[in-house]
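Predict structure. Chain length: 246.
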Amino acid sequence: MTSVFHSPRFWLLTLAALLAAGVTFSLGEWQLSRAAQKEALHAAIEMKNGLSPLGNPAFSTMKDIANETHRRVSVQGVWLPAHTIYLDNRPMGGKTGFWVLTPLALQGSSQVVLVQRGWVPRDFTHRTRLPEVATPAGLVTVEGRIAPPPSKLYEFKGEDAGRIRQNLDLNAFRVETGLPLLGVALLQTGAPSEGLLREWAAPNLGVDKHYGYAFQWFALCGLVVVLYVWFQVIHPLRVQRRAQLP
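Prediction complete.
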């Protein structure tokens, strides 16, 4: 009966099965570790959301401000509407329109922060017609949270100028405007106002995706083990036993 386990083919398939099972199991473990990292990041975001909002002095003088993404703020400043930008093809509530971005000169500081103020629908009959957005003059209070610059979409060359743009590069915009822009943006929150909606989607960290991938890898690992045991151990032994019966 042990002759089944002495052939070179048996050991070659055994090595291949061990390698496949080891790789798929390791990939499953890696996906679980990625899920744990995302859960830790989600906990950090929730912790920052629970902190009191940053005011002008703390916000404008904070070091490593990029590490404070998702932290709530309540700052005062003056809008600079001459530099308002409309980012095209941006969704909200299942509809496509513009994200409206306007720099805010912070009170008591020489710094300026780019504010993602909200969303407006676009006029599909006149592509270049801008929607009406009210921009209050004088000192305003803006509540929101620290955010990275707006995400980028695919664009054709030459579409990064003018009021309507596909994307906005913060460093290039700083050079273009000459404004001392901070390295982060603000995502304005609150009820609709000034013709703008602010139903921002919650950060999607993809934790469920990693658990799904982990399940798939572990299932594949289990399948490799089951198939190996059946076809390389149980089935050959059954065949051999039947052959030895009188």
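Summary: The chain has a mean pLDDT of 87.
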